[in-house]
Amino acid sequence: MNTDNDNDNDETTMIKLRSMADEDGNTQVFDISMAAAKISDLIKDAAGVEDREDDDDDDDETPLEIEVSRVKGPCLEKVVDFMKHHHEEKMKEIPTPLGGSSFNEVMDQEWYQHFVSDENLGGNNDMLFDLLTAANFMGIKELLDLSCLKVTFQLTGKSADEIREILRLPELTPEEEQQARMEHKWIFEDS
User: Which residue has the higher pLDDT, 124 or 110?
Assistant: First the structure.
């Protein structure tokens, strides 16, 4: 049972999220309230949120630390920023069908527009794809939806070669292309 007291505890209960180790074996640790972190299925499961709510023993002052083993430090920092902001200002649900012809028409909340902007993500798609992967791994539907929406509009109206470049897909050898055309005829019906 979720009571106002449980919600108050979640607001003040801090947890630590530890990133995966980089090439040098270093990790990064980020603090976040349980209330903000509960947007993530991974965090809820790892923290045993349902078990915690039934536990009246608040004597343990050591913050819970959760290792997010598949997310690099710089990306986890962005994910934590997203979770904190989402806790303060919920992201509107992305409509289907999209109801707009550009990213900013569909996502009209300025903070979320900026969050996945090229300027904020370093000017290339590496961080965007890392965020998409992290959102999927951590079970953060809103971040996954936002990242997918951004990629959708990046790919809209692009040629196959441009899409291949954006997604960093390798070029097929003539033999691989021939095999793909045979196995997936419906894809190539118009070409």
Answer: 110
